[in-house]
Design brief:
disordered N terminus, Arc Repressor Mutant, subunit A, about 140 residues, 5 strands, 5 helices, alpha+beta
Length: about 140
Amino acid sequence: MSAAPADGGTRSASSGGVRPAPTARRSSRTAPDVGAVFGALADPTRREVLRRLSGDDATVTATALTTDLGMSRQAIAKHLRALADAGLVVATREGRETRFRAAPGSLDDAVAWMAETSGRWDARLERLRRRVESQA
């Protein structure tokens, strides 16, 4: 039996890989959904998929995305799953097809977190500016 990874993660028996250790929720602005949004948007392919889903076409199939992006259906499905887990994409079943559309509501939480953080930094930098000016 192998030891647990040093970072506190757990080994996955099926893949032999390491899953990250769960993180504690600190506040509503650092909730996993905001982290999932940033994690999903960290990948350039996912940003491109979301950009295409945000266009004039209201919904797109995974097959259409594979054609447009020149990727395998399995790779597109993986990216769509990550975007859906972050709340950025919604899947709708229409007959034999599953159509995907952008659901930018999760972006609101991420934007709010960035605005809140930016405001705190602005206040800190303003205090620093005043302190430096008063010592000059």
